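In response to reviewer comment 3 from the previous cycle, which asked for concrete evidence that the modeling workflow produces usable outputs, we include below a single protein chain processed end to end. The sequence was submitted unchanged, and the resulting structure tokens are shown without manual editing.
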Amino acid sequence: MTSVFRLALTVPLLAITAWLSACAGDKASPLSSGLFAHVSLESLGLPTALAAVRPHDTATHLRASDADAGDVFGAAVALSRDGNTLAVGAELKSAPGASEAVPAAGTVYVYTRTHRGWREQARLLAPQPTSGSGFGHSLTLSDDGSRLAVGAPFESHAAARAGESLAGDQGVVYVFERNDSGWSQPARLQASNAASFDWFGMSLSFAGPGDTLAVGAHRHDAADAQGARSDSGAVYVFARTAAGWAEQAVLTAAQSLEGAQLGQSVALSIDGQTLAAGARASGLGAVHVFRRDGALWREQAVVTAANATPQNPLGSQVALSGDGTTLAVGASAPEGTAVRQRSAGSAYVFVNQGGQWQQAARIRASNSRSGDAFGERLSLSADGRVLAVSAVNESSAARGLGGQQADDTAQAAGAVYVYSRQGQRWDQTDYVKSSRTRTGDQFGSALALSGDGRQLAVGARLEDGVWSLRGWLLNERPQNSGGVHLYSRS
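The workflow returned the following structure tokens.
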């Protein structure tokens, strides 16, 4: 179709569209409009004890109701433990400003699950949106979904260390709470020793009720009597008290190493007594496990894998079971590094037995290929029996569940692999693809499981939006607007 023909159609069709929208304006809202499509799918592959009747498996595809090109909706996702609340980050979404829109300020969308499906409940912004703050880069929800923490790791503030010539990117975390009147923002958290380029808020984790929060700042320079160690990293623990949120501890490795980047990923147990933090120690990666003893935190163990390599370093993502005794760890080379294209990626499961962490399994994709970045994102059910692992650069053009894995014609389309524990053995039960697989979508750029493993949320941050009438007429499509795919078992 030529541009002239498109333009010839534009004026009358847009006029008709505007008239129809005006007629329907009092009936449609983000809470009641048909935002989602439901289709019947086959088994999500939960362990036999949790399996439901196959015809009740469903999938939902979710896009932002105000999607624009480049929003990267789905770059972060979080599910409440009960599976009824979903938060989705779009860290490059423009936000309203005092006089004009603030580009790449970030937005977080909150959805609730009802008998009619998932419905948008709120859109959350920083109180003072700033461009490039990364608001929505990381998310965590309390068990019941009533409390949400949002990381803005690139936001700058004036709390830099004395004597620094450059201040910026210290990072901020916002805490939101839901009540009968909607969502409020009672706290804005900063590190007590914030410094430039710490990226405080790059990773987040709530304990179950949402009264303890772990915040990773993997670019922090830890210092001791021997001096500062660049990018050694730190994890901050905050507790909710009667007076509000207060910093409880600043955790660093017992043996801080330059470039170790402790806190690139964090996970808390439900009771808030066990904390796991990923690090790049010695180039092979490690997970530091801390235990709370009264008011003090102590490093309990440094978990490593004997077969880790610089191409598959441990710690890209960590997840803990509810009781803190099962630890899942991603092992994927960091984005932008030379070894990434040589790294297929893997995941490990460790179990705490008698106070000692033992490697229980090493997991690899059933169609493993170099560069797939398997293990970059993962999520573990509360009982430690269901594990979802993504490979954001996997290249099969298959769609839905159980497709052809050997195909490699859709570069970086992305895939998710679901595993279940049968006794001491982990078996792959499902190979999950987008229902609309396309090259470059990076399906699996974010992952979240509900506590019982029956709800799975998958972000596809580079997924293109759908054609609208206006976009079709003007030959425009919202590229990289992003999407989220949800799978459930009734």
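The CA atoms of residues 262 and 279 lie 4 Å apart. We consider this sufficient to address the reviewer's concern, and the full set will be provided in the supplementary archive.
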